[in-house]
């Protein structure tokens, strides 16, 4: 099966590490320091500023600041009753940033949470209920697509996707759903599944795309992306960190320059047919700008999938 004419989509860069560089005060955090999602309510100007910086850099798709906006995660800050409000405001903040810009889209971000079912941290039913609640709010607010991302556990991934599609099936919404897993440096997800297991498990879902994000930089994703290019029958997304994180003088450091990052991403597009790209931890507006410029006018390579 040969895939052709898949135009590029460029996602934004890192939310969390970008917010860490902003002048966010103790009052802005409203007593919930470390909960980026609460800023949608308590200091939305920072979120809108972040989104605008990524749009100015060339991003076509903004991810909402809702990575940890499920009941399970928000309960750790006493915010479990703010799920709907936070998710809706997050979409509104992204819309404010887009304003009258054309051909810009909003992806509702659904993170893995802090409790994994395969490790016995949470029951599947509780995880599914929390995901449905978050997805319902994101759909109500008008996201253009959903991305279930940074998946570390295939049971968590399946549960979240089933919940998301259940909400979509009983609603009037028909939007794309993306899935993005995290493969650690040792070559598997946190709970031990490799990329072949990911493809086999998620192939039955009507996904818009499957891809990789977080954990490592582009270099350590090469073999996994190659496998997806040859075996996954839909779009592929690659949204890596700004290189493999290192500790320098007690601080987390991401080593790739914007130019090096953009060049490595360019290779995925022209050699493996990747059609959705963006940045995870560490990636700044400068990285997205370099990526956008490097990919200007570039068409992803046609892929031949072995099915």
Name the descriptors.
12 helices; 307 residues; TIM Barrel; 40% helix; alpha/beta; eight-stranded parallel beta sheet
Description:
With 307 residues, this protein is an alpha/beta fold. The chain has a single domain, classed as TIM Barrel (Alpha-Beta Barrel). 40% of the residues lie in helices and 15% in strands. The N and C termini lie close together (7 Å). The model has no long low-confidence stretch (mean pLDDT 96).
Average pLDDT number: 96
Classification by helices and strands? alpha/beta
* CATH topology grouping: TIM Barrel
CATH class: Alpha Beta
Order of helices and strands: EEHHHHEHHEHEHEHEHEEEHEHE
**CATH second-level architecture:** Alpha-Beta Barrel
Question: Biggest sheet: strands, sense, closure?
Answer: 8 strands, parallel
Compact summary:
With 307 residues, the chain is an alpha/beta fold. Helix content is 40%, strand content 15%.
SSE layout:
Blueprint: E1 2-3, E2 9-10, H1 16-20, H2 26-29, H3 39-42, H4 44-57, E3 61-63, H5 71-74, H6 83-98, E4 105-110, H7 124-141, E5 145-151, H8 154-169, E6 177-181, H9 195-202, E7 209-213, H10 222-231, E8 235-239, E9 246-248, E10 251-253, H11 258-272, E11 276-277, H12 285-294, E12 303-304
Parallel strand pairs: 2-11, 3-4, 4-5, 5-6, 6-7, 7-8, 8-11
Antiparallel strand pairs: 1-12, 9-10
Helix pairs in contact: 4-6, 4-12, 6-7, 7-8, 11-12
